[in-house]
Structures
1.
Amino acid sequence: MSLGREGWRGYDIIGDVHGCANTLEKLLQKMGYERCDGVYCHPDRQAVFLGDVVDRGPHIREALYLVKDMVDRGSARCILGNHEFNAICYTTPAPEHSEQGHVRAHTPRHNRLIAETLEQFACHPEEWRMFLDWFKTLPLFLEMPGFRVVHACWDQGLIDEYKARYGDNLLRDELILESMEAHSFAGRVFDRLTRGTDISLPRGTSIVGRDGFVRESFRTKFWARNPQTYRDVVFQPDPLPEDIADRPLSARESEQLLSYGVNEPPVFVGHYWLQGSPKPLRSNVACLDYSAVKFGRLVAYRFDGERKLSADKFVWVYVDPES
Ligand SMILES: [Mn+2]
């Protein structure tokens, strides 16, 4: 059996690498990929990266070469993650009338998120520019034979609108500047597809995450069915305080939640820092980010055309703190 016009027998969808290049090599080798002329290939399967190859980890430059070489060779595809989009915006000058120097302001928080990447490319400025140009060519979402991929959230309405406006799934320069305005189409698309949905915490409350950041909102599922309380929709590593978790969703909050249908094709996302044993979130929804860069697992799903996802098709490598 082959899936799709390109004749691949299956696809190996891979979660957020975040600079864990050595672990990525181990995962590819475990799945039967071998270097051919220096680039990892599989004779009859294609890899699909879910974005967030950059930032945080020890071997960001190496990870980017590994992935980009595979994409250039055709042995992999890669979509845009919020970290690649952040890198583009962080390095794009803002229009002159703007109060900030760059599309993504150089605040202490933003500086910290991109610090390892900039440090590791400090002696390779031309390579960094080359990768930034490459990020701008990455699709925002992919509709593959029998499955879909997006970094954080499949929002059919926004995706349909994107295709209607632009006719494809690619990032374009004018949208980078437009995204500075949070309520613009570009602002909404990038935020939703690469960062997901969230709900604001009640006024005056906040959560300090395990990563040390203070948040006034929490990440929510885009596939919840008939949720009643915050507990039913929360989807993030940091649990909500009990009293907040039990709060009922307001009519407005319920109305704004997405609900990915049970009969839709399987969709794969990264982004959410999961822990524990990899398994589908639902029969047609899987997240492949199991916190590799925090010494969790780098996870792939080996897709062969099934309508219902199965726990035994996840493959992973534990991240070695020494490597
Ligand atoms: Mn992400």
Note: Residues 79 and 138 are 5 Å apart (CA to CA).
2.
Amino acid sequence: MIDYHLHTPLCRHALGAPADYLEAARGKGLREIGFADHYPLGLLGVKPHAEVTMSPEELPQYVSEIKALAAGEKEIRVKLGAEVDYLPGKEKELARLLAREPFDYVIGSIHFMDDWDFTHPYFAARFEEADLEAVYRRYFELLWQACRSGLFDIIGHIDVIKKFGYRLPPAALEPYLQRTARILKECGLCYELNSAGRAAPAAEFYPGRRLLELCCREGVPVTLGSDAHAPDQVGRYFDEALQLLREVGYRELAVFTARQRSFIPLDGGAGKEAPSAS
Ligand SMILES: [Zn+2]
Ligand SMILES: [Zn+2]
């Protein structure tokens, strides 16, 4: 199995060295892991209220550290990825910046609505005063823009707006989910089943079953990540995640090398990379 969403202490809110994550992956019997630490917001001229990414100066260190870890490891494939914030208006700059890094894949995530870091527990109280319908609309509009930006290989924790348990009723949410699955398909994008949501107040994977079903029906490829911010979170809830993926109809997982997608069988213990069908 794979885990494509691991962080490192460079982002200032994760614990444990990359080698510790690798050892945790070995303990869980994973065949392939990918680090996708938070790409430096400083490179985009953004300084959030709370430091949540590595600094621009640390990016070369991150790249060389993960490359060295990969080179020294014989059993587990180690990929170099990044989790990058989608910030409207910064597309051209970001395309230029990402093109010069040797990433195997880039996860595009939304953590900010304007200046609100809405996934950060410190700022979760703002959901209390917010018009939830308007918040969801804004989130999904940003998400669709991110999909269409062409900047990303994988969309990260796609319905993370539910993180703190503030939810729209299912009927109100449904049109957003349907449109999201359609846009992923149109854009040829992959998304992740991110297991971290199970441990959040939402108590559910990102995305929940309904969006997984819609995406599977559209033929949108999926990959798998724990969003581990500590070594003991590597592969967290994966038995349950794999069961859910099987139930909704998925039979393979997307993997990436040098930003090219291929697939491995969901139930293939060997985890050998198959040539891409797309
Ligand atoms: Zn993080
Ligand atoms: Zn994230």
Note: Helices lie at 18-27, 59-71, 91-99, 126-129, 132-148, 170-186, 209-218, 238-248.
3.
Amino acid sequence: MNVLVTGSSRGLGKSIILEYAKNGYDIVINHNNSHEEALKLKDYVESTYKVRALVIRCDISKENEIDDMIEEIYKKFGHLDILVNNASIALDQDFELKTKKDFMKTLEINLVGTYLLSKKIGIKMLEAKKGNIINISSTNGIETTYPESIDYDASKAGIISLTHNFANYFAPYIRVNTICPGWINTDMNKNLDEDFINKETSKILLNRFAEPQEIANLAYFLGTDKASYINDSIIRIDGGIKR
Ligand SMILES: NC(=O)c1ccc[n+]([C@@H]2O[C@H](COP(=O)([O-])OP(=O)(O)OC[C@H]3O[C@@H](n4cnc5c(N)ncnc54)[C@H](OP(=O)(O)O)[C@@H]3O)[C@@H](O)[C@H]2O)c1
């Protein structure tokens, strides 16, 4: 069994890769900028878990790079069992200063990248009559709070819509599900100021941000047969929000 996780040399993607590798899956580590981290992760999983690991640089907003990545995976692994669409950016900026260019950049990576990968790999999975697609959206895709992330929120809401169309088109062979995490302790939040973090933490029933491993546990579970009847679902994992 094997898995491609986009944006997986660091953050949540890395935790998801480690969880699959720990359970014996061959893995594809995709990155855009973090090449050193990707190579270190490859060495680590190969030596620790004795699985095969590919490292592929691909900017998922570029269709030709996606095509090259898919070709390389199928050439080296012959097939793909699981796609995890994890890579994304969040450009938090003043609402009035955000430009069309900013908005489009976020959509191209977060939404269009997810669309192209799911469509192209999903068609191959459909030919094989088996496969599994797991998307990482966000609670921001369900409810929006801060206009600074208007583009990010739209991209994450779009992923929820893609989930339903792909689950429908690829049925009954491919399960397609989406995870909507709340706050996670990753680099994405490293520039948040302490007061803001405290304010957001106070809204969470568990009174803390998630560790990436806690989201990776769910991303792994959805890829296994234990989740065999979970399909077309939007699953929220946010520690409980005070209402
Ligand atoms: N952190 C949170 O609080 C939170 C909450 C809800 C949902 N999420 C979602 O969880 C997922 C993982 O987030 P994270 O917190 O781990 O983010 P992160 O620490 O900022 O990591 C982002 C990852 O995406 C990759 N990436 C960005 N642009 C890319 C591109 N054009 N092509 C390929 N890869 C690209 C990065 O790779 P390089 O370093 O190689 O560029 C990196 O591996 C995202 O979908 C995010 O929206 C996060």
Note: The first helix runs from residue 11 to 22.
4.
Amino acid sequence: MRADASDSDRFDRMRRIGWLDMDRISRSRCMVAGAGALGNEAVKCMVLAGFRNIDVVDMDRVAGSNLSRCVMFRGEDEGRFKSEVLARRATELYPDADVRPINSRVQDLTDWDYDLVLGCLDNFSARMHVNSHAVYRGIPYVDGATDGMTGRIQAVLPGGPCLQCASNGSHARVADLRFSCTGDAHVFVPRTAAEITTTSVIAAIQVREAEKMASGRTDLCSRGITYYNGEVGTMDTVDLDADPDCPNHMGD
Ligand SMILES: [Zn+2]
């Protein structure tokens, strides 16, 4: 088979999907909160899919136990800032991308000048922080979470139900427990189960929702909360309405 002009266009096969707007995807200002397992998979998919403008926010450093799930990390990266390693490797994958590391807790960010945000976080309080900023500023937000062989995704659109609408008492009780699969040497953290294929599934769906948001097709975004159970191979989406008592919607 001979090559033609379409074979030299990096995004030719994507352009064949009618609703994808590659120009808007390339211009979208994106933030990925968290540079761990989900962040690695999400940023990998984003740069391969043509996102060029990405801030990666994380304060942690690479540990050996990350290496079973983080495609962008190498053994030699142990001890380096996750955001810096992820940004550098993502740029190798797509040199036209501008992937910028921010070594910070997402709670300490002051600049929220983004078109969309992906939440690849490992704890409830950081999630709620990103959620409330996104809702307040009207920024579309896709949250992802994994726990062993299961995971969940929620796309939060301006005016729609948010993460806090879906939260309940048991979530609140663990608000300050950091559900990390690695942990931090300075605080007690429960080590939760984690496995790469669950991570890949959840991050891939997050990026697919981000493609819709960036393309101006939020009408295609999934509604409610999608639950993935990799152990039995099911995926279900549960409807969700905005909670009139949710503090993020006061004044709507
Ligand atoms: Zn809400």
Note: The chain has one domain: 19-242.
